[in-house]
């Protein structure tokens, strides 16, 4: 799946007339967080069986976030200012309660298993599906209109960024540091 494939996948999730949910368990930085934010409901169980992290850390690896990512962050995070700061700093959040406060998650299910979180997510999906269909879909797509318009417009700037010198240097440095930490 190429970059345009990923953007298309995010569009499919964000524009789905069928309710969608993400049960986050473990690390889901960058693209994982993007996919979770594109859904209608985001939940995690805590304590998690794996190390938890969420965030939009694209800038930390030298990627200039596409315009649609800014719209996705503004749609989900607690305020436009928080969205701007989160994207600029590229911080990963290891505390699910902080992630919830910022708007990355809707629910942190305490002292629960992933299966419990999936059950709660399923119940939310059924709740959303019980709302008169056309009215709910119109409300969802209306709230996401800016995001969906940007996702439908191919953004070649990210390709230019990936093949650029800065991204290549930062990615190379990151790979070297990961090899050292093995």
TrEMBL record:
This protein's record includes keyword tRNA processing: no
Pfam families: ECH_1
InterPro entries: ClpP/crotonase-like_dom_sf, Enoyl-CoA_hydra/iso
GO biological process annotation, one example: fatty acid beta-oxidation
Residue ranges the record marks as coiled coil: none
A GO molecular function held by the record: isomerase activity
GO cellular component terms listed in the entry, alphabetical order: mitochondrion
Keywords, alphabetical: Isomerase
Transport found in the keyword field: no
Leader peptide range in chain numbering: none
Protein name: Dodecenoyl-CoA isomerase
Organism classification: Eukaryota, Fungi, Fungi incertae sedis, Chytridiomycota, Chytridiomycota incertae sedis
Gene designation: ECI1_2
């Amino acid at each position: 799946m190429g970059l345009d494939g990923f953007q298309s996948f995010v569009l499919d999730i964000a524009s789905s007339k069928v309710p969608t949910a993400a049960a986050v368990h473990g690390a889901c930085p960058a693209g994982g967080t993007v996919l979770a934010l594109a859904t209608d409901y985001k939940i995690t169980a805590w304590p998690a069986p794996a190390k938890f992290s969420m965030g939009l850390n694209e800038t930390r690896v030298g990627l200039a976030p596409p315009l649609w990512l800014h719209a996705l962050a503004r749609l989900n995070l607690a305020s436009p200012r928080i969205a701007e700061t989160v994207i600029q700093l590229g911080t990963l959040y290891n505390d699910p309660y902080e992630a919830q406060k910022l708007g990355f998650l809707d629910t942190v299910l305490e002292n629960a298993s992933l299966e419990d979180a999936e059950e709660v997510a399923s119940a939310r999906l059924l709740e959303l599906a019980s709302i008169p269909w056309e009215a709910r879909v119109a409300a969802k797509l209306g709230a996401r209109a800016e995001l969906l318009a940007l996702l439908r417009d191919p953004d070649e700037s990210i390709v230019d960024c990936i093949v650029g010198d800065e991204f290549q240097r930062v990615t190379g440095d990151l790979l070297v540091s990961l090899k050292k930490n093995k």
